[in-house]
Amino acid sequence: MNSYYQFEEFVNKLAEQRIQNRKITMQKSKDILDFFLDELENKENKNFKINSKYISDNFTTLVFAGIDTSSHTAGMAIYCLAKNPHCLTKLLKEISPFFDNLKTNEDFERLKNCEYLQCVI
Fold it and tell me: Domain range for residue 91?
């Protein structure tokens, strides 16, 4: 079985598990899958037809699109840093203090607030 179909099967199982969990716990997340499931459950919304195939197709598209754009962004950032060593030096100076201490969410938040890192990305 090729990996796309394995992923599609995984997404279908995930959606089914989430549907069952929502029925039992009555709790909903605030993620894209729950948005689709809310619409699936919404009987009053006649203009927006949604089914499990729609959910699976869109969820799969979003995941693969995210992988593609993330890899292109990372690749381009690495290329630009390699072409501009002074930029790489400036970036490393800003982020190197975080390498030994990324242990808590607070540390990650501080790293996310690095201005030059944000410019590079």
Answer: 85-121
Place of tokens 């400036």: 90
pLDDT in tens, the chain (121 residues): 577 778 778 877 877 787 788 778 877 777 777 777 777 776 655 666 666 677 777 777 777 776 677 778 888 888 889 999 999 999 999 988 877 666 666 667 777 788 888 888 8
Give phi and psi for 50, each to the nearest 5: -140, 140
Do residues 70 and 76 lie in contact, with contact meaning Cβ atoms separated by under 8 Å? no
CB 110 within 8 A of CB 98: yes
Q: Which long-range contacts (CB under 8 A, 24 or more apart) does 38-41 make?
A: none
Cα of 5 vs its chain's centroid, Å: 20
| pTM of the complete model | 0.45
Do 56 and 90 fall within a single domain? no
Give the ranges where the chain is alpha helix by DSSP (H).
3-25, 32-41, 52-83, 85-95, 105-112, 115-120
Q: Are residues 32 and 89 in the same domain?
A: no
